[in-house]
Design goal:
The protein is of the alpha+beta class. It is 34% helix and 34% strand. The two termini are 24 Å apart.
């Protein structure tokens, strides 16, 4: 499995437009991608900074999803309302390959 960690800022003057794009197009797009297992989103308190965590079953399916995204026309829309995009792709830890849960 791989975890895609991405952050960005929503333009403070375009929050309403961004929210519509995210609800109507971005989230549905990612939810339909092959191998997508979980999608979480957070907002840093008091800011327009967004954090998303999307888990895929494999690096290969993440790569295909990114290719689909790049061909979808969504990146051109996304950049109209956001800035400072950063992302990192994590693979499972060899020490803790599965989530630990309290007993």
């Amino acid at each position: 499995m791989v975890l895609w960690h991405a952050t960005w800022y929503i333009d403070k003057d375009k929050v309403k437009e961004y929210t519509k794009l995210a609800s109507d197009e971005l989230i549905p797009f990612w939810m339909k991608q092959k191998g997508m297992k979980e999608f979480r989103a957070y907002r840093f308190a008091g800011t327009t900074k967004v954090l998303i965590l999307i888990e895929f079953d494999s690096t290969e399916n993440w790569g295909k999803a990114m290719d689909n995204y790049n061909k979808s026309g969504l990146p051109e829309k996304f950049v109209m309302y956001t800035n400072h995009l950063e992302y990192t792709l994590y693979q499972n830890s060899p020490v803790i390959p599965e989530p630990l849960k309290p007993k």
